[in-house]
Design a protein that fits this description.
- It is globular, with a radius of gyration of 20 Å.
- About 40% of the residues lie in helices and about 20% in strands.
- It is built from 13 helices and 13 strands.
- The protein is an alpha/beta fold and about 350 residues long.
- Strands 3-2-1-4-5-6-11 form a seven-stranded parallel β-sheet, with helices on both faces. Strands 7-10 form a two-stranded parallel ribbon.
- The longest helix has 21 residues.
- The protein has a domain of about 220 residues: NAD(P)-binding Rossmann-like Domain (Rossmann fold).
- The relative contact order is 0.13.
Length: about 350
Amino acid sequence: MGRVVLVTGVSRYLGSRMAQILSDDPTFDRVIGVDVVAPVHDIGSAEYVRADIRNPIMAKVIAGSDVDTVMHMGVIATPVQAGGRMSMKEINVIGTMQLLAACQKAASVKQLVVKSTTGVYGSGPRDPAMFTEESQPTHVPRSGWSKDSVEVEAYVRGFSRRRPDVVVTTLRLANFLGPRVETPMTSFFSLPVVPTVMGFDARLQFLHEDDGLAALHHAATTTYHGTVNVAGDGIILLSQAVRRAGRVTVPVYMPFTAVVGGLVRRAGLADFSPEQVQFLAFGRGVDTTRMRRDFGFEPQFSTAAAFNVFVKSRGLDRHLSAERITELEQALLGLATRGRVNA
């Protein structure tokens, strides 16, 4: 029997793409995709199994199929995807706990790859220019996906101590951008008028979706044990990104960002959560020396190139008319004013 890999979160775009990529790789004889909802994207020759990672039944799925590699792609980035913040946390944290418990019991499991985020470093005014994998966050994430990811990584480290025979690779991936992936950042830069935090110009790093998937695939086919930052070369300032996307900014005073963010969120336009506000005010940079030197991976797209591909593929470089810009600015400022009054 050859290698058997299990991929969680295949109902979403990145999970389904990962299952498809692995099913095309002759290294793996069998690919099993797991989720509570059937995938809507192509998963290649991978087998779909309807199962909830929060359920102890995962132990039977892993043991019964002699799974040797687990790709944990099931951490959800926004409450909208999960049906609310409480459901999101339950899937991310409780689901990971149950998955790791299942892996711990299965003697067949020899490798675990976890999709994490550079968001675990947080964002704030006292951050270093570049976070290394050993850096401790100076502003610990207190909400949302980043906070969940901090907890997920803690459980993964505990699993690694209990099962030292398993190769555990945690990839801290920068914000994904690309022609097809949908993330809080793609929604944010697709807004015709982009709310920004007045007086701040964040330093941003991005990762092209193909590079992110390639890094995860690389992790599954190597035996690197540890945590790795994965991001495109260089940084881009928020103001530069907005100009490249042909968007217009509406600067918002920091005390009013929660009001504007709530309006944008309720309108279903973008996830302008408190953690996103922090990120868009202070930004974040990560050092990728380990990615190249030890992990042996080289992204094909720099941060700027990934952003340019995103802009071109979404048609965002078509500039708005002056009249339309004025209308949108006035509408957003009007919403913000009403929000402050109601608050």
